[in-house]
Amino acid sequence: MERIGLIGAGRAGTALGAALAAAGHPLVGVTARSDASLERAARLLPAVPVLTADEVTARADVMLVAVPDDLIQDVAHTLPLTSAQYVVHLSGAHGLAPLNGLAATPVALHPSMTFPGGPVRLDGVMFTATAPDAARAVVERLVKAVGAQVQWIADEQRARYHAGLVHGANHLTTLVSQALAVLRDAGVADPVATLGPLVAATLDNTLRSGHHALTGPIARGDVDTVAAHLAVLQGGVRRTYAELADATLELATADGRLDAATAARFTEVLNGHRSDRTGEAPR
């Protein structure tokens, strides 16, 4: 099995390193500088020596460069890599450009998973890879060793791929956080218990059925309900609601759920409640 070297002891790198070690891949060394990184390495990779970057590189077949996106290029280009090695970064947004010019075979490998700082089960997680053909066998072997799946995309599609993940996951956190705040302001004693089952069921239905899972006032044509919502919401929440309502209107109209007259009434209501950056409705 390939010997793995880990540059950086962040949340994603240590979790993936621990999973590879558990699958039998020798983890030959890790770099860690901050107190938080040293603590994380000791907790998740207790048998792995903390070494310098040069020492880790000299021992490894595959180098995982698990550092923040903006540091990948600078860090990778300081490593004494050879043509017999593979250098892998874990960024979703970046393709192979940060690794251009290195002697090692470059790989961009991103797991579609959140890493809270502890062990993470990777069974069934999708890793999205961009790499030369010469790296495919190694990448597939590493990913399958941790029980995950791998798919391949073109280098020029990495930014679009990552935008889809951010829009669906990070922005979901923003949306749910805003919704919980609205419920709290309405006097709901337990917003999480109130919203949680609905969000979970909706997410499950949407992942299975796409836009066909859409329910709610726009799908039903309840223009007055949407107008009432916009009248009581304020600031950033109202802006978010109006923009998402507009996008939802497009889905429902394209799906044939709304007639032209109802869609026009929705558009009139939404245009009348669009907010500027101050949170005030236009006059």
Features:
elongated, 2 domains, alpha/beta, 283 residues, Rossmann fold, seven-stranded mixed sheet
What would you say about this model in short?
Helices cover 49% and strands 12% of the residues. It has 283 residues and is an alpha/beta fold. Strand 6, helix 5 and strand 7 form a beta-alpha-beta unit.
Description:
- With 283 residues, the protein is an alpha/beta fold.
- The protein folds into 2 domains: 4-153, 3-Layer(aba) Sandwich (Rossmann fold); 160-272, N-(1-d-carboxylethyl)-l-norvaline Dehydrogenase, domain 2.
- The protein is built from 11 helices and 7 strands.
- The chain has helices at residues 11-22, 35-44, 53-59, 72-76, 136-145, 158-185, 191-209, 217-220, 223-232, 235-254, 260-272, and strands spanning 4-7, 27-31, 62-65, 86-89, 105-111, 126-130, 149-152.
- It has a 7-stranded mixed β-sheet with strand order 2-1-3-4-5-6-7, with helices on both faces.
- Helix 4 (72-76) links the parallel strand 3 (62-65) and strand 4 (86-89).
- Helix 10 (235-254) packs antiparallel against helix 11 (260-272).
- It is elongated.
- The termini are far apart.
- Mean pLDDT is 94; it is low at 275-283.
